[in-house]
From TrEMBL:
Alphabetical UniProt keywords: Signal
Gene3D superfamilies in the record: Periplasmic binding protein-like II
Region forming the signal peptide: 1-19
Domain of life: Bacteria
UniProt subcellular location: Periplasm
PANTHER family cross-referenced by the UniProt entry: ALIPHATIC SULFONATES-BINDING PROTEIN-RELATED, TAURINE-BINDING PERIPLASMIC PROTEIN
Organism: Oceanobacillus luteolus
Protein family: Belongs to the bacterial solute-binding protein SsuA/TauA family.
Protein name: ABC transporter substrate-binding protein
């Protein structure tokens, strides 16, 4: 009798375990690049916030806005973390199932101006006539870079020797080996260059450009309609991570997300995260407000890259964020 009872208990446990596993929903998430800028996302993964929502999130790095959006629109990814400007480009193509922004992760530009030489008393005029290795045409880093330069009365196409021919992934190595005097870099690359004496961080494009929905979680309109509950669970996990990042210091955050940056020293991770925290780059909630959206369109328009006056109400869905934040 005892053996039968024990067997039934084991079978019951296996049944419950199987049921729990069946309830777990898989979400394929594509990130545009691997960056410390996305620290809250890695916190959500490492701290088990997605798992606690019953989600199995599989992360893939798709390296570039175009490839990330292709993955999303083709069904290779359910959700994409990418610059919100990409959703405007898709919308302008009169797509029937366009990408909708539903949760904001970063709220400033994440790049820094790095110079080969030291500039103890740097002014933006120091860049005039110099070789500047820019980012790809139509991408947020380049558009924000141009916006900031114009703000300081510098025309990037006439006052600088501007090179935009290098692929995103190859920009750091091109700067190292080339004759460029300035470059626009994300962390931790900027700090690594500084530590190794290969460059000097002299300005922040994030501080200069103001708040903008720089990196946002988006999904196809059809996916959002058919999977509202799962998108809410995803956003709830991200919101928990955002609050966790806001409440913890840079060194604690660095220790948690270190597995995603195995080739970077912990002290560099810490200083880079602190730099982003100090300038308010990490959004503290997933809500993308209309003022930020309009700032994005202004930046794109000044760069000559705004293809259409993309309406906030069409491309931004705040219902999920508001639902999660009001719980």
């Amino acid at each position: 009798m005892k053996k039968i009872t024990k067997g039934l208990l084991i079978l019951g446990f296996l049944f419950l375990l199987s049921a729990c596993q069946e309830q777990s929903v898989k979400i394929n998430l594509a990130e545009v690049t691997r960056s410390l800028f996305y620290a809250p996302q890695y916190v959500a993964l490492e701290q088990g916030f997605f798992e606690e929502e019953g989600l199995e999130v599989e992360l893939q790095t798709t390296w570039g806005g175009d490839t990330t959006m292709t993955a999303l629109l083709s069904g290779g990814a359910d959700i994409a973390l990418v610059g919100s400007e990409t959703s405007i480009y898709v919308y302008a193509q009169d797509s029937r199932d366009y990408a909708v922004n539903f949760a904001q992760l970063t709220q400033t530009d994440g790049t820094f101006l790095v110079a080969k030489e030291e500039y103890p008393k740097f002014t933006w005029d120091d860049m005039k006539g110099k070789e500047f290795l820019g980012q790809r045409v139509g991408g947020m880093p380049q558009m924000v870079g141009e916006f900031v330069l114009k703000k300081h009365d510098i025309d990037p196409h006439t006052d600088l020797i501007l090179d935009q021919s290098v692929d995103f992934a190859n920009i750091p190595s091109a700067f190292q080996s080339g004759n460029y005097e300035f470059v626009q870099l994300f962390e931790p690359t900027a700090s690594v260059f500084e530590q190794e004496g290969q460059g000097h961080i002299i300005a922040s494009f994030g501080e200069e450009s103001g708040k903008v929905p720089y990196t946002v979680f988006m999904t196809k309109e059809s996916y959002l309609e058919d999977n509202q509950e799962n998108v809410e669970k995803f956003t709830r996990a991200i919101y928990r991570a955002q609050k966790w990042v806001a409440e913890n210091d840079a060194s604690t955050i660095a220790e948690v997300i270190a597995p995603y940056f195995e080739d970077t020293d912990l002290d560099i991770l810490t200083s880079s995260i602190e730099r982003y925290k100090s300038q308010g780059s990490f959004a503290e909630d997933p809500f993308l407000d209309e003022e930020e959206w309009e700032n994005l369109k202004t930046i794109m328009d000044e760069a000559g890259e705004l293809p259409i006056d993309a309406p906030y109400d069409d491309l931004v869905d705040t219902n999920v964020a508001e639902e999660v934040m009001n719980e």
